[in-house]
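Exercise 7 asks you to align residues with tokens for two separate proteins.
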Amino acid sequence: MKKVSIKKPFFITSIFFMSLLVVFTSTKSFVSSKMISYEYSWQKEIKNIDNKIEELEKLKRGYKSESIKHKNQAQRLQFQNGELQTAKKHWQLADENSRIVLRIEKKIDELKIQKKEIISKNS
């Protein structure tokens, strides 16, 4: 009859539990790293939206100032002799710039709504 050592089953059992421990801890870190990357992804998305809003605000200010400049020029020229056509051109440019400003404002509003939805979804 062969003598079975107690050390062998203990060794096999301990290896089994050690492997379970390794699997459990690696799964836990994998899940937490996924959660962290998800958290960073929506925060990055918020940051990107903020950057887009800031760029659009700058663009809007530029078009708004151009619109005001053309309106002022048109108002000044409309009563000068022979400058009515030039004044009309400035009115048209002012209107075009105002329409662009409205489109930019609409896009900014859409981005703000998108940002609000992302924040409420992840809070």
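Second protein for Exercise 7:
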Amino acid sequence: MIRDKIKVAQDRQKSYYDKRRKQLEFQVRDHVFLKVSPVTEVGRALKSQKLSPKFIGLFEVLSRIGLAVYRIALPPNLSNLHPVFHVSQLRQYVSDPSHVIDLDPVQVREDLSYDVYPMRIADYRVKQLRSQEISLVKVIKTISIGLSKGVDGTVMGLRISF
């Protein structure tokens, strides 16, 4: 009688577990993210940061070793890590065409600067900071990703620096 009740409780817990969990399986050449955690020592392998991401990279699955263990291709900066990870430390990457950013051809000089031509000057004001006057220009311009951004400038009409 007690064993029957234990079996019923175990079956109930198994059904709860099966409802909430999904079986993760990756194919060779799939791309995955790697979870940053002290257990995998990925956090220590990365440069120390105050705010570190939960997942890093976009790594390719090289092979499946066991039921839930995969070997992934790591970059040289993570070469001190073992390349075999449990499936719980991986997250699948779902490709999305919106993740690709089309870059416009930009003429970059030797000093790694480039010209950005403003589309429209939206606002201009002078800010007083102690004994200095700082000219602020809000420019609606096109960048390679098409965002509008306010920038600082010295005089309207001259080349705007970032």
